[in-house]
Amino acid sequence: KLGSTYRECQDYRSELSAAIEDMQIDSGDIVISVILPGGLLYYTQKKLRLMALESDMDSIDKVLVDLETDVARLSDGRQLARME
Q1: Dist CA 40 CA 27 (whole Å)
Q2: What is the pLDDT of residues 13-44, one digit of tens each?
Q3: Cβ neighbours of residue 39 closer than 8 Å, sequence gap 6 or more
Q4: Packing angle between helix 39-83 and helix 2-23, nearest 10 degrees?
């Protein structure tokens, strides 16, 4: 179960990474924000969505580190039990 949870987290991280890449603010976004009415609102909303995705990425990275630590501890524990 722990292994499947880890894989699901890795998959989610990959999805987040792709979404962050797609959400990056580029020169087109800057042009839109300057030229179009409501462009600044568009830019602000896009920036907020990007920040939320980056926050989710930080969270999933922490979860993955915790899972890796747990898997390592469980593996060590099983090896010790086999030796006894």
Answers
A1: 14
A2: 999 999 999 999 999 999 999 999 999 999 99
A3: 32, 33
A4: 160
CA distance 74 to 57: 26
Residues 6 or more apart in contact with residue 42 via CB below 8 angstroms: 29, 32, 33, 36
Distance of alpha carbon 29 from alpha carbon 79, whole angstroms: 55
Joined together, the tokens standing for residue 15 give 């999805």
Query: Can you tell me the distance from the alpha carbon of 25 to that of 32, in angstroms, rounded to the nearest whole number?
Result: 11
**Token output for 80:** 């010790």
Rounded Cα gap, residues 46 and 79, in angstroms: 49
For the segment 47-84, what is each residue's pLDDT rounded down to a tens digit?
A: 999 999 999 999 999 999 999 888 888 877 665 455 44
CB atoms within 10 A of CB 33: 18
